[in-house]
Amino acid sequence: MPRHSLIAPLALSALLLGTSAVAAPAPARFPADRLPEDEIIYLVMPDRFENGDPTNDRGGLAGGRDKTGYDPTSRMFYHGGDLKGVIDRLDYIQGLGATAIWLTPVFTNQTVQYEPGREIAGYHGYWPLNFLDVDPHLGDRALYKAFVDAAHARGLKVYLDIVVNHTADIIQYRECAPRGCVYRSQADYPYSRRGGVQGEPINDGFTGLSGQTPGNFKRLTRSDYAYTPYVPEADRDAKQPAWLNDPRFYHNRGESTFEGESSQLGDFAGLDDVMTEDPRALAGFIDIYGRWIDDFRVDGFRIDTARHVNPEFWRAFVPAMQKRAVAAGVTNFHIFGEVMNDDPAILARHTRIDGLPAVNDFAFHRAIVDVVARNKPTAELGEVFDKDALYEGGPAAARRLVTLIGNHDVLRLGRTVRSANPQADEAELLKRTILANALLLTARGVPALYYGDEQGFTGVGDGDHDSREDMFASQVASYNANRLIGTSATTTASSFNPSHPLYREIAELTRLRRQEPALRRGDQITRYETKGPGLFVFSRRLDGEEVLVAVNTAAEPRTAQVQVETASTDWRGLRGQCAASALAPGAYAVSAPAFGYVVCKSAGAVRPNARLP
């Protein structure tokens, strides 16, 4: 299979010694006190956003889609979006109120990978070959720098989506066909025997993955303990940096079942699973991603598949990246990991054990979809927030969790809202969708908006590829057949419409969040919840101010008396109608329309860190 041209390989010795130069610190581009929780993130998949340069649609490759990866009529291939397109649409992104842009990975990817019965292109960015260069379908390093510089000039931060767990699928096994190799455990296939416990002794003196010292891993000289891995001759130098081409830096145990040890040691859908326990791999990734900080001064990392990497790696990698950012003059570097689980205890474990500063809050995602789209009790939201103390750093750390109502790996909210409410009219579907965004943009955490949600995209279908529609005029029939929310338009035409009711409402909510520090940095406390559809009310409190948010998931207006701070006596409405005065010290009546919300503010003297009895 043809490969993109690759930059010269790094010497492994230099890589491990960390000899790459650290750029001189640059002046701070943002206010020094702009914390991660101050950001409103906009998540973009560049290939599906805007085609700014049609000349790179095929990535400089010739032939059909199996060679170039380009087929704008298929969900599974490149469509032509690129970095130039993102630059061209910065006005649109900033108009929505975003303060930071998270792009899915921009690294040079495997153009096409083959799965049983089908082929798929690496348009999404998660099959990296060259970790140091930009995929030619998207542009090049100069264009990526132009994008970062253009964003920074507007006060927008840029988050780099990084991959550590795996590389593109290059390594093959002689015993079985690609993606047909069942996982072989350490107990059945120890590192000290070839092909199982009865095999010939190998790797003399290697004490296993827990012995994480350079001397120990130098004794791991053979990789045929479980399978016999090999790299096809045409792919011997496919990966960059060059050390990534050596099978000894991979686990080589077959397909992960995502249970037990295989969750960290197995191949993720055939992708080559890196042996991140090896100190040389750790040093290699510190060098790789340190260079992206040095060269581009990105403002944070989103870490793909973070839960599938050993905790010891993150406990060394994270502080190394934070130190590198400080040296490069990047303040408040934000790191959050993808942990796809909706149990707060499991999410919190990765902040306590792995040392990740934050994770994507999939518990909040599950709750908001259940409550707003599936008519579940609003108390489900309260249960999520009640567990904020589990995170390392407690509720303050929970304010840095990255919250979401959709992304490129899950069903779009619009799809669930429509399918869960088949009798609802279009007005109700729009109200429910607005309500979800109101929760996202007023609750604790760092909200991440997913491109296209503000245009009512619904992502009809059950797979992740269905949720990756084109913002520019699409040629994918299944995308164009979708019924969008809040509009009669379809994706056959460009979808950058600032007059869409969702775009306008989200822009108002982001303006409100930027205007009110309590909505970004304030303590959060649940005031009222229900055992069915109805009101969910919470306060955000900061520096003597209390902001009260009430959302109503019921089909009729709802009113409740809720406890507030005793000093919160005088109120005004920030969104919707709010009573001017408390009923009594510590008691306030709040009302919200059907499938609606209100945001009320008191300027009373709230006690710092006050808690309900």
List the helices and strands and how they pair.
Elements (H helix, E strand, L loop, with lengths): L11 H6 L23 E4 L20 H4 L14 H6 L1 H7 L3 E4 L3 E3 L2 E4 L2 E4 L6 E7 L6 H13 L3 E6 L3 E2 L4 E2 L40 H5 L10 E2 L31 H4 L6 E2 L5 H18 L3 E4 L7 H17 L6 E4 L6 H9 L9 H12 L5 H8 L7 H5 L3 E3 L8 H8 L5 H17 L3 E5 L26 H4 L20 H15 L1 H5 L1 E6 L6 E8 L2 E8 L5 E6 L7 E5 L11 E6 L4 E6 L11
Helix pairs in contact: 8-9, 11-12, 11-15, 15-17
Q: Please indicate the count of domains.
A: 4
Mean pLDDT across every amino acid position: 93
- Radius of gyration, Cα only, in angstroms? 25 Å
Low-confidence parts, pLDDT < 50 over ≥5 residues? 1-28, 609-613
CA distance, first residue to last residue: 66 Å
Based on secondary structure, the structural category is: alpha/beta
Q: Beta fraction of the residues?
A: 15-25%
Q: Mind telling me the CATH superfamily name of the largest domain?
A: Glycosidases
Level of helix content? 25-40%
Number of helices: 18
CATH topology of the largest domain: TIM Barrel
Give the total of beta strands.
22
